[in-house]
Amino acid sequence: MCGIAVVLGAGAGTQQALFDGMLDSISPRGEVDEVLRADDALLGTARLRIVDREHAVQPWTSGDGRWALCFNGEVFNHGELRARLHAEGRTTRSESDTEVVLETVLAWGEEALLAMRGEFAFALVERDTRRVFLARDPVGVKPLYWAVADGRLHVASEVKALVPLGVAVHEVPPGHCGWAGPGTQPLLHPYLDLYRLGEDQPELTDVEQAAEALRTTLTDAVRIRVDTDLRVGVVLSGGLDSSLTLLLVQRLHPDCVAFTVGAEGSEDLAYARRLTADLGVEHVVVPVRPRELGLRDVREAIRVSELTEYGDIINAVVSQRLFAAVHRAGVKVVLTGDGSDELFGGYAMYRRVPGQDARRLFLHKIGHLSRTELQRVDRTSMGHGVEARVPFLDVEMLDLAMRIPQELKHRDGYEKWIVRHAFADLLPGYVAARHKNPMSHSSGLHERIRLFRPLFPRIYDGYGYRCAAPLQRDFSEVLKDHDYDLDAAAASTPRDLTVAEHARDLAGALRWNLAALVRRPADRAGG
């Protein structure tokens, strides 16, 4: 929904050029920049107008002028929370979720965060003291970073806004909140512990009970995310998760459109075209020929995404093309199927760790989504003024998934078996039978982008992103190197690929691309 930029502390008002640069770096996240300036505080947002578009101006100030809020994301149950506020005798001035965030935090403190069903990050500033309360949604769908420089606290939605400070940049972890004084480091703590999801609830070992709970919970997670008068898009790969998302969106919203990116002849385009034709849903295809992707695309994907793992960067190149098309189509809100693989065992690694470690691996992957899959989705969508919503990562879904045992997630040779079973009457057979295939592979674009992998470190360092984290190998590779010993993999020091690893990788990519060049004339001749 927005991008955030905040500078707090003595002399903040003298940092106008720095602040304007921070806003410029996040301006693609919104349609309009809105600011509040004072001698010792600079607050700004790049606002994407979705909820109460005419009135939810930011930074939003409380009725008495004491508090100012910079808010990114959406709280989907804001109507319910507003009704609770009114029942307690509190008044509101708008229909926006922005105001609800401010008023509920003032009324209920940290308990308000547990009452919110949404994807959010915000900074709530007490204007007299310049203290600030920072908070981020439970799984980290929306980003939030901070840094201290020259005695002032700087807060922003993206690392790139803080790189010019020349100091270490820190992430507000998912499910964390806390206070900071002007110019001091925030004291953050978890208000919801991702690593204890479902811990106090009984396992759902009965197949039909688990399936019914999954069907009800996911349907509701989609419902609250399409409660808008805007047209809703769905990122459709034709795989299980995105197809199911489209099926539910079509049932719950009167105006939807699907978007698919890929090379002609790729699995994704074939499956997506078949499904949208069967459903009668408008389908925007974003065709990309592998040879069209070059170093410029890779550089821009790294700049926008700030990602630290190679596989995510490759996927970001593909996502950039996709969300640019969504923006051109005039769609502001899209739903994606991201998160299902992490919750329901879509990756091979889940079947290779020892049985007693399976739950811990699920929790590890969920705990790191904020800097991998979710970071890719957030940056590449918001970088084109599009808000991507992820129903599979609704907090109710998170809790439910951790109560479903591994044997229901992988069964009869299928990953995510319980998802297929729960929606068997809704999913076409060709979708239900399709196995997991990673995004860049199924789009037919992976091997082309892999040519440029040896250049990733230099490009990444050139943007200054090491101030937040180093570029490193994919966790799946680290886990494999440690023979799927989760403790050893998690405790290992992050490292980049070696020269030898890059060389082997490049050799494989070259072989594939040279073979593709040979195939292309043959294909044309045969046609």
General description of the model:
This protein has 527 residues and is an alpha+beta fold. The protein folds into two domains: 189 residues, 4-Layer Sandwich (Glutamine Phosphoribosylpyrophosphate, subunit 1, domain 1); 310 residues, Rossmann fold. It is built from 22 helices and 19 strands. Helix 2 packs across helix 3, helix 8 packs across helix 9 and helix 9 runs parallel beside helix 12. The chain is globular and about 65 Å long.
| CATH homologous superfamily identity of the largest domain | HUPs
Question: Beta-sheet strand percentage?
Answer: 15-25%
What's the count of strands?
19
Structural class, by secondary structure, is: alpha+beta
Total of helices: 22
Termini gap: 47 Å
Q: What is the overall pLDDT average?
A: 91
The structural domain count equals 2
CATH class descriptor name of the largest domain:
Alpha Beta
CATH topology of the largest domain: Rossmann fold
Q: How is the largest sheet built, in terms of strand order? A: 2-3-1-9-8-10
- Would you identify the CATH architecture of the largest domain? 3-Layer(aba) Sandwich
Please describe the biggest sheet, giving its number of strands, its sense, and whether it closes into a barrel.
6 strands, antiparallel
Poorly predicted runs of 5 or more residues:
none
Shape: globular
What is Rg? Answer: 23 Å
**Residue share in helices?**
40-55%
